[in-house]
Design brief:
single chain, binds zinc ion, 9 helices
Length: 257
């Protein structure tokens, strides 16, 4: 890895970060005791797990995932809007039916007392406002960076979200090369998740096949996503790669049998 390229901060490097943490603990124990490492400690310290380098900040796979998440934001915002602003007279029914209920306090911190009665102050709409503000800020930075004319996005709401996302998806390479690129990527992922919960669009399917890397049954596919990801070791495959890998594994299994 070159000096300029840091490891990708994405979930692709979870296994590497875990290996590094184990190595640091083992090395600290050896140094504290002032002795030679045991064979086990030596293999922990020289773990041999290579990090995926950032390109420039996020690796290609994580960049693709962030771009997908970014592209989903307008639909998710529309979904939240539909749930949080029901036609007049239907609000109590909707709340009663639990459409606003899947907003656990741990996921979406309500402002103040956080009562979910008025759509204007509801946690769902607070998330939408945060999304709109974040997108506006990033669009401003990218336009500044690329020397584009600043957009006039004063009217808040779904239209500005859609327009900002369209611009940011088109210039996503510039977005993910900003000095703030790590925070941008992390925020997009967090906002996507919060919108999914606020809109009730948080369908996650756990696949039957165990993870091809860590062998745990933790591979998940989120509604509409073009990738699957292991919730345990952080491995990520596009749907094509996953199908191909399963095919290879099945052929290898038949040869062994
Ligand atoms: Zn990555
Ligand atoms: Zn795994």
């Amino acid at each position: 890895m070159s000096e300029q390229t840091s490891p990708c901060p994405g979930r692709c490097n979870r296994a590497w970060r875990a290996a590094e943490a184990r190595a640091r603990r083992a090395a600290a124990a050896v140094i504290a005791d002032g002795r030679e490492p045991t064979d086990d400690e030596r293999s922990l310290i020289l773990h041999g797990v290579e990090p995926a380098p950032g390109s420039p900040v996020w690796c290609a796979a994580c960049s693709t995932r962030i771009q997908e998440s970014l592209g989903r934001l307008p639909d998710l915002v529309a979904g939240v809007w539909a749930v949080a602003t029901p036609p007049p007279g239907r609000l109590s029914t909707q709340v009663g039916a639990g459409r606003l209920a899947p907003l656990p306090a741990s996921e979406v911190k309500p402002r103040g007392r956080g009562r979910r009665v008025s759509p204007a102050g509801s946690p769902a709409i607070v998330v939408v406002d945060e999304v709109a503000a974040a997108l506006r800020g990033w669009e401003r930075l990218v336009r500044e960076d690329l020397g584009h004319t600043q957009a006039d996005r004063h009217r808040p709401g779904q239209d500005t979200v859609t327009a900002s996302v369209a611009y940011l998806v088109e210039w996503v390479a510039a977005l993910l090369s900003l000095p703030e690129a790590q925070e941008v990527g992390e925020t997009i992922t967090t906002l996507e998740r919060r919108l999914e919960i606020a809109s009730g669009m948080d369908e996650v399917q756990r696949l039957q096949t165990p993870c091809l890397r860590c062998d745990r049954r933790a591979v998940e596919h989120r509604d509409g996503a073009a990738h699957v990801a292991c919730g345990q070791c952080g491995a990520v495959w596009t749907l094509d790669q996953w199908d191909y890998a399963l095919g290879v594994a099945a052929r290898a299994g038949r040869r062994r049998a």
